[in-house]
């Protein structure tokens, strides 16, 4: 913990849903849910208007619809989220060279590396307010909540206190006064299991947790969590803001337009991905011991399996052979929408011929099924030759309904077309280089 409140945590408010409301004027001020569009899908983000009804992230789409049946359920436009996130991260780096992104919508910033006259509370507060205004400008109106404190832990806690569109600065010396009344679940890593163990011991708040000795806490929750909880209950957190994290893994994955059911095709895709992983590892001078695969099923259930080799490798054929064997342990009969291969446990040396000669291994042919000529997921960007740009309101039974509006227009008209209308086109996101 520092002697100054010089670590800032920024969290964009209801980010995915906010981007959709920005780009779709008719949805502003109304409940919007990103994700959960399929029968067994899950919610990625809910707007604050939807949260009033109890809708939250990771909730099933079925439950979200029961709670908020009048919400707009959208499939998501990740190119728009990435582009907006890039603008925000550039603003943060203009403030300080030490920025540690945690995801598309949140990051830590080290204000001690910023060009500020001092780190007094009034100075960092002004810097935080300027930052929030700047974020709103570059994103076209999105809001962010900011927390500023003497540690990462306190800054993240502070950024949850005045949502949405707020800011909390924790003055040095006031950390424990802020923490003590809070529930233990504000501490990272205190999930349902750990919280239940603490509850059985009569510990509900951080003030009560602070009274427990370190040895007793280890006995209650185990060695892995006990020491860390004991420190955080006393606001002890010295983790630095890391602008560049050490590379811990190299992976390649792909999401497919149609669910995959052909096991040979899946093996071929894993083989191709493994070859790409090996190429990237050699290019960067890495090898690794742990091969893993990621498989997302048709219902968005995500499975992962891994196997650790006796020595590091950077050979794509070896990685592919392990990946295919891991796939063999999984039930994919319902269909697969995403496959990925990764290698972790990185090292800078290689054990040659780990599995013997691999140069003559036969390449598995990969021929992906042709995607539908056009698909119309809810929320997708489209353009009509006569009506102009809009987004998919809904589709089914050979009909697609479009709301014609953009971020720069007022709420627009709704029109329906045949799904194969040659005048209606998907607006594809730009290809990333």
TrEMBL record:
Record gene name: dinB
Subunit and partners: Monomer.
Organism field: Nocardioides alpinus
Catalytic reaction(s) noted: DNA(n) + a 2'-deoxyribonucleoside 5'-triphosphate = DNA(n+1) + diphosphate
SUPFAM superfamilies per record: DNA/RNA polymerases, Lesion bypass DNA polymerase (Y-family), little finger domain
UniProt xrefs under Pfam families: IMS (PF00817), IMS_C (PF11799), IMS_HHH_1 (PF21999)
Active site: 106
Protein name listed in UniProt: DNA polymerase IV
Segments of skewed composition (Basic and acidic residues): 417-433
Cofactor or coenzyme needed: Mg(2+)
Domain UmuC, chain residue ranges per copy: 7-191
Stored HAMAP family: DNApol_IV (MF_01113)
Residue segments, region Disordered: 407-433
Cofactor annotation comment: Binds 2 magnesium ions per subunit.
UniProt keyword Magnesium present: yes
Entry-linked InterPro entries: DNA/RNA_pol_sf, DNA_pol_Y-fam_lit_finger_sf, DNA_pol_Y-fam_little_finger, DNA_polymerase-Y, DNApol_IV, IMS_HHH_1, Rev_trsase/Diguanyl_cyclase, UmuC
Its EC number(s): 2.7.7.7
CDD domains with a match to the protein in the record: PolY_Pol_IV_kappa (cd03586)
Site (Substrate discrimination): 16
Biological role: Poorly processive, error-prone DNA polymerase involved in untargeted mutagenesis. Copies undamaged DNA at stalled replication forks, which arise in vivo from mismatched or misaligned primer ends. These misaligned primers can be extended by PolIV. Exhibits no 3'-5' exonuclease (proofreading) activity. May be involved in translesional synthesis, in conjunction with the beta clamp from PolIII.
Residues annotated to bind Mg(2+): 11, 105
Lineage start: Bacteria, Bacillati, Actinomycetota, Actinomycetes, Propionibacteriales
Protein's cellular compartments: Cytoplasm
UniProt keyword terms in alphabetical order: Cytoplasm, DNA damage, DNA repair, DNA replication, DNA-binding, DNA-directed DNA polymerase, Magnesium, Metal-binding, Mutator protein, Nucleotidyltransferase, Transferase
């Amino acid at each position: 913990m520092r002697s100054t409140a010089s670590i800032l945590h920024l969290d964009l408010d209801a980010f995915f849903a906010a981007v959709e409301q920005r780009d779709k004027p008719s949805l502003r001020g109304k409940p919007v849910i990103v994700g959960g569009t399929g029968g067994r899908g899950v919610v990625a983000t809910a707007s604050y208007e939807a949260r009033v009804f109890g809708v939250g992230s990771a909730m099933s789409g079925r439950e979200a619809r029961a709670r908020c049946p009048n919400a707009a359920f959208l499939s998501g436009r990740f190119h728009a989220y990435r582009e907006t996130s890039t603008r925000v991260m550039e603003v943060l780096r203009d403030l300080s060279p030490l920025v540690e992104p945690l995801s598309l919508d949140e990051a830590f910033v080290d204000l001690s590396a910023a060009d500020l006259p001092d780190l007094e509370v009034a100075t960092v507060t002004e810097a935080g307010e300027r930052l929030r205004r700047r974020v709103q400008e570059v994103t076209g109106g999105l809001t962010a909540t900011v927390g500023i404190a003497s540690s990462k832990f306190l800054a993240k806690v502070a950024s949850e206190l005045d949502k949405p569109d707020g800011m909390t600065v924790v003055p040095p010396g006031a950390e424990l006064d802020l923490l003590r009344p809070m529930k233990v679940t504000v501490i990272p890593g205190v999930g349902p299991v750990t919280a239940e163990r603490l509850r059985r011991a009569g510990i509900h708040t951080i003030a009560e947790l602070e009274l427990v000795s370190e040895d007793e806490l280890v006995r209650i929750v185990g060695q892995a969590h006990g020491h860390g909880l004991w420190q955080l209950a006393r606001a002890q957190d010295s983790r630095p803001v890391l602008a560049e994290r050490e590379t811990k893994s190299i992976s390649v994955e792909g999401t497919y337009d149609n669910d995959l059911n052909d096991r040979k095709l899946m093996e071929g895709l894993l083989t191709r991905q493994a070859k790409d992983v090996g190429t990237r590892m050699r290019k960067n001078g890495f090898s690794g011991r742990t091969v893993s695969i990621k498989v997302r099923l048709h219902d968005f259930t995500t499975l992962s399996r891994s196997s650790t080799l006796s020595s590091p490798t950077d050979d794509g054929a070896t990685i592919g052979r392990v990946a295919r064997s891991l796939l063999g342990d999984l039930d994919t009969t319902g269909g697969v929408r995403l496959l990925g291969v990764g290698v972790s446990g990185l090292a800078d040396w290689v054990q040659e011929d780990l599995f013997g000669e691999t140069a003559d291994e036969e390449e598995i042919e990969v021929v992906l099924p042709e995607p539908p000529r056009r698909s119309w997921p809810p929320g997708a960007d489209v353009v009509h030759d006569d009506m102009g740009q809009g987004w998919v309101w809904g589709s089914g039974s050979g009909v697609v309904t479009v709301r014609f509006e953009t971020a720069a227009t007022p709420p627009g008209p709704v029109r329906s077309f045949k799904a194969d209308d040659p005048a209606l086109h998907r607006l594809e996101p730009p290809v990333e280089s």
